[in-house]
Structure formats: structure tokens, C-alpha cells
Design a protein that fits this description.
Helix content: 25-40%
Number of strands: 8
Number of helices: 7
Strand content: 25-35%
Structural class: alpha/beta
Radius of gyration: 20 Å
Distance between the termini: 66 Å
Shape: globular
């Protein structure tokens, strides 16, 4: 049986940081850990359509700061910030502390492993073929400028009677290299045949910046030429 290590946990202290940042005594450590998981579960359940990539939790004396990294921050904020206030109130009831809620936008959601995994899971729930969903996600990620991407799916794929594993890789994904910037995401698709687990590994370069897709670049260049002709 293989001994698998979470790629993010494996690189904490090298090029990844903890998702929860606080110090506690032995007495408070366990309750705080459980509370962190409850905060994450509540945010994920309430904001399923917001494309939550990760949740950062920081604790101070009597305050908790929760930072949500989302592909669609407008969904979280709602009209005039009403929705975000409702979530903050729910978190204060859960923690019984003052909660600061911050929302940050994810640049390039197609190159974020967690969001890619959730996107493929959603497509499987809508009965789109696995191979098609995987190939499209991998092509878009490579167009964004990542070094490599690997996708693995396990379960009763396409309603098969016997569960199996299918995986595909493009580019380089060096999981044993500590200095490699590996982003990892996991999601589950609830299909009529049962759950299908999805794992996504994305290798990014140091100082990775989102590359503009070719068709958008061409459109921008065309607009610039048009503006120059019109003397703008």
C-alpha cells in the first residue's frame, strides 16, 4: 500500500505556509483546531457557489481574522455587503469572539488546484464525460503558463460497476522536489453511481503570474491598433 504525503503539508516551511496561524497552550490547542474546521465547513457550505480556494484563519487575544480567497468575491459580498455581514454574524455565534472577515480575489482561478478540482467535480455531477472535463481543465491550465498539471480520478467513473482509477498528466509535476511550487486540490463529485474523488496537482514557476489567454491578447492588440488609427 502506498504511503501518500499531502504535497502542501510536505512543503510547509519551504514554500508553503500554514492555513491556520496562531499559538495556543495544550489546553486550548484541541478546541481551537476543531473550531477552525467548523469555520471552514461553515464557509464552504454557505459559499458553495463563490469558488473558495482556501481559507486563512488567524487568532489574536479575543479576535479571529478569517480571510477568504475566492474566484468570485462579488458572490460573497452580495448587494451592499449584506451577505458578508450575515456570514460574519454566523462566525461570531460559532466562535463567541469578535470576527474580522476579509475577502480576496484569486487571480487566475484556472491555475488554482482546488478550484480546478471543484470545477471538474461539478462537470461530472452534470454528467459530462471525465476524459473531456480533464483534458479541457489541463489545456486551460497550461495556457495560463503553469509548468505542469496532473489530474487523478477514482471511483465508479461513467457509472461503471467496478471502481477504477484514471489519471492524466501534462508538463512536469515533480512531487519529490521540495523547492518545486506544487499546488494541490481535492474535491468529491456526488454522482448517481456514487462518489468520485478528484485530486489535482499543479506545478507553478517561482513568481508565477497569470498569462493572458492568446485570444484575449489578440483582442487587446486589435483594440490598441484601432485606437491608434482613430488618434486616441
Amino acid at each position: 500500500m502506498g504511503q501518500k504525503v499531502n504535497p502542501v503539508g510536505f512543503r510547509v516551511g519551504v514554500n508553503h505556509a500554514w492555513g491556520s496561524r496562531w499559538f495556543a497552550s495544550k489546553k486550548n490547542f484541541g478546541p481551537y483546531l476543531i473550531e477552525d474546521q467548523k469555520i471552514r465547513d461553515l464557509c464552504k457550505a454557505k459559499l458553495a457557489e463563490a469558488g473558495i480556494s482556501k481559507i486563512l484563519i488567524e487568532r489574536y487575544a479575543s479576535r479571529v481574522r478569517v480571510t477568504l480567497f475566492s474566484a468570485r468575491p462579488g458572490v460573497i459580498m452580495g448587494r451592499k455587503g449584506v451577505d458578508v455581514e450575515a456570514i460574519r454574524t454566523d462566525l461570531e455565534k460559532l466562535t463567541k469572539k469578535e470576527v474580522y472577515l476579509e475577502v480576496k480575489e484569486v487571480q487566475g482561478p484556472d491555475a488554482d488546484a482546488q478550484l480546478v478540482a471543484e470545477s471538474i467535480a461539478l462537470q461530472l455531477e452534470r454528467r459530462i464525460a471525465l476524459k473531456r472535463a480533464m483534458k479541457r481543465a489541463m489545456k486551460v491550465a497550461m495556457d495560463m503558463g503553469v509548468d505542469g498539471i496532473k489530474v487523478r480520478a477514482g471511483g465508479r467513473i461513467n457509472g461503471a460497476e467496478i471502481a477504477r482509477v484514471e489519471w492524466s498528466r501534462e508538463g512536469k509535476v515533480p512531487l519529490h522536489t521540495l523547492r518545486a511550487n506544487i499546488d494541490y486540490g481535492f474535491a468529491e463529485a456526488n454522482t448517481t453511481a456514487g462518489k468520485i474523488g478528484l485530486k489535482v496537482w499543479i506545478c507553478k514557476k517561482e513568481g508565477f503570474q497569470v498569462r493572458t489567454p492568446r485570444n484575449e491578447r489578440r483582442g487587446g492588440e486589435r483594440r490598441e491598433r484601432q485606437d491608434r488609427k482613430e488618434g486616441k
